[in-house]
Amino acid sequence: MIERTPVLDFITQTILVLSLVALLMPLWVVFVAASHDYQTVNQVPMPLWPGSHLFENLSAAWAAGNFDRVMLNSVIVAVGVTAGKICIAALSAFSIVYFSYRLRMLLFWLIFITLMLPLEVRIVPTYAVAANALGPFEAILNAIGISIRLPEWNLLNSYSGLILPLVATATGTFLYRQFFMTIPDELAEAAKMDGSGPLRFFFEVLLPLSKTNMAALATIMFVWSWNQYLWPLLIVTDHANYATATMQLQKVVPGPLFGAPPIWNTAMAANLIVLTPPVLVTILLQRWFVRGLISTDK
Amino acid sequence: MEKRVTFSNTWLAAALILPQMLLVFVFFYWPTGEALYWAFTLERPFGGGNEWVGLYNFEGVFGDPKYWSSVRVSMIFAIAATVLSLVIAVLMALFVDRRLPGHQVYKFTFFLPYALAAPAVGLAFRFIFSPDAGFVSAINQFFPGLWNPALDGFDALLLIILAQAWSLVGYNFIFFLAALQSIPRTMSEAGAMDGAGVMRRMWDLQLPLITPTLFFLIVINITDSFVNSFGIVDITTGGGPARATDLMVYKIYTDGFQGKDYSLAAAQSIVLMVLIVALTFIQFRFIERRVHYT
């Protein structure tokens, strides 16, 4: 540092250590509570040191929450949403940046405005659409005079229902667009001169260049889609087959705050199971995660 | 803005953007339109389509004291959680940016809360703050009945505010730290040469320089508190006790899916949508134009 300030340095370090403890406390409590038996976990105040029942609590929670199936579902959904978002974002940004047609700015704004319509504010009608995803097309065709009955495509209780509504991405498209804008024109010129078509240019020049972007976007989107809660809760009624990990948290505690007290040690073990994958991803891929966070802004 | 070199195959361009446009149309624009339609109509009791009722649903929403209490609770929740998490995050970022020994540790750990799903945060906080287990209930041994979020609305609201603030601190911290680190070191050094101490430099130099980030985060945090709080409320309080934590999104959910009143829920969605659009608009227009110091 620039100057010597021993007292202030001491205060700084103390505050930082205290806030670190406060910040990690809830995570530690989840872990500790998951490692005690029923009697110990209900003591007030609860012990601060882990006990010896971690694995039996974990296996009890694993069985109670049907996590064999549920973890698989969550992985499928998170990977599906992440991959879908990246593909769609890269393709549409490519179309907007590297082709010249009249509608492209309008289309870009149509995508961008969806930022203002988060899922939570349109849950009720989105749910209705998901019950019959071809409904909008049928209504439009009927409105312009073509009387037709499209087959019903019900997205409730299906992987496509869990994945598709979450795939459309304004931030991803925006990120890719910004990135493509920074790529020098000479690259496209050279590719054209060498006789490469747009697709070849996309796959052999743009995609390899955007690996960093892709990694950053992928980490952030994986965590985001793993943590989705409201949408799966609505669209899944067949809990045995399509429940996702976060949904199971609602099952391990009886109703909101009232009624019988939850069995805290298995509830916390279930919480530990659910929160471990995203936490691991952020720790292991930390560099990408932070970069993705700052560049997507949301 | 424009690329000098472009490809001219319009059909290919259309095919590339088609998947995104289909998703956006089916899952964003159509539902939004439908919400508007439902907000101004009522379903006939014996079927046969919807009936145009004008502002009837909005009158129902705005004439309902329960709705206003939900708005009030949402405001308190959003503002309190935002202020709390921003203040803690900016303090931590300022101190970490002093780069004393060990500061790398904080960079790697402070953002962890952000990785947790809202219901996971809710469940952890519900345990820690539960009236008959965990930690906080220890004060009930000395003052019986002092802390009980299951019965006391204030306690319940405090519980979800703390949970939301905790889950946002890490996110805010990352942005503040990135902003602080983009300030040239020479500026701090010049300040020090002129005799400004550490605290003085923080207050008069670093804080003014990160105001754009601060304003950006205020909007993001408030929007997040309005929108993403569902998971926390659903796991901890379920809107109770006596609607003390009935946030707007949660009310839409209960009215729409448990009360099955689509028109009422749609009208509330429209109000919330207007609010979010206004916030986003402020973020894009006002903040990016007015607050610019570099």
TrEMBL record, chain B:
UniProt keyword Transmembrane helix present: yes
Transmembrane spans: 12-30, 75-96, 108-129, 156-180, 201-222, 262-282
Keyword line: Cell inner membrane, Cell membrane, Membrane, Transmembrane, Transmembrane helix, Transport
Domain ABC transmembrane type-1, chain residue ranges per copy: 71-283
Protein location: Cell inner membrane; Cell membrane
CDD domains for this protein: TM_PBP2 (cd06261)
Domain of life where this protein originates: Bacteria
Gene3D superfamilies: MetI-like
Protein's UniProt keywords contain Transport: yes
Its membrane topology: Multi-pass membrane protein
Subunit structure: The complex is composed of two ATP-binding proteins (UgpC), two transmembrane proteins (UgpA and UgpE) and a solute-binding protein (UgpB).
Protein family per UniProt: Belongs to the binding-protein-dependent transport system permease family.
Protein name: sn-glycerol-3-phosphate transport system permease protein UgpA
Organism expressing this protein natively: Neoaquamicrobium sediminum
Classification lineage: Bacteria, Pseudomonadati, Pseudomonadota, Alphaproteobacteria, Hyphomicrobiales
